[in-house]
Amino acid sequence: MVESFVKHRSLRVFVALALVAVFALFCTPADKAQAATVQFKDVADHWAEDQIAKGVEKGFINGYPDGTFRPDDRVTVDEFVKIVVMSLFEKDESGYYSFSKAYFEDMHIALVHSYVQTLREFNPNDIPKGGYWAQPYLDQAERMLFFRKNDPAWGGKFDVPLTREKAAYIVALLVNAKEGWEEYKVEQAVLASYKDAAKSDYSQYIADTILKGVMVGKAVGQFKPNDYLTRAEAVTIANRITDRASRPKFTPDFKGKYYAVVKNEVGDDKYVVFDSKETLDILKELDSVKQNAPGYNLDNFVSFYSYPSKQEYEKYINDLAVNPVVAINPALFFIDVTPLSGGGENFFIGVNTQQGVDGYEDLIDIVASGLFGDEAVYFKAFLEEKVNQYDGESVSGNTVINNREVFVYGVKNIVVFVTTPKRG
Asked: Is the sign of the CA dihedral 168, 173, 179, 180 positive or negative?
């Protein structure tokens, strides 16, 4: 049985249990909140009017006492961090905040465990009075690993206007933790469309937020990385973080490139660019025979993992979240292709020494023939030798076949073979 690689990554049953723990943390009644529908005298016909209404209704941003929202005012670093943190919570009719179920529901269980732990130290219904108003939000962002107070980017100052490039830095760290990082070659394709962003020190983060649809350019071919972020832009970004369906789509120009569309950690489209047609052809041929492989199989085109059963896979994922040091991967076999920023792709092939290659010979033949041509027999012999040699403690070595270097190493019960790009 072959299923999408992301279909069971989040393990909704475990997430549901984790959510119970999260909601149990917030038992302090909140003060009566403002009515959800708030009319501001300066947002009518503004491009972000709907986004502002949505943000106010969700409770992560408000207007000013004079009845204005001031959508085009600059946002400071600490204000934006608070907006992002609070966008991850939902407010009910009484004004009570709890962590967003929608944000949790398709999150990897390991990240759920991590976030549950951070929320034991942050209750949006009971923010301490006195002191620096933004401290609780900066601390929570740091616990969630998308902001560091001692990061040189901030220079120790958080009450200063935030640039768009640094907003992208914050947002990418949060969003990518859940949805996965983008490929370097795809990021470069994005930056080819935004020349000003390509020159930024935060170009990678800008490219990732554009690909995810959380941020967009301000004009055709212009991201304006040094412009200051406005309140209207901030509320729009915050809404898109949790509402993926509202994000605009961006398709890079892949003209003349070999690429595939796969799924990321939450099941959304993700682009992968290859340097050679050879790699894409191998993956397409593998795709035609994967369904014949034994076991419970997870397939994401560039990644194929085979497990003894769905139950053993889910147990492993839960063990990994609870204690990754002792978790043992029960995978029987895997093939994983990783594009390299310097050019070419590495092929990773993993074989469980207890299972051997039985049932996976066709997959190995396709990779061996595609990468090594007439010398495929030498790779298969090298693989068989190292699998038989592995004693569960150590195995190593390397060889060169058809101008490609092949490395081998052992990880607990699995022998991993890495084939590098062709020399020259």
From this structure: positive
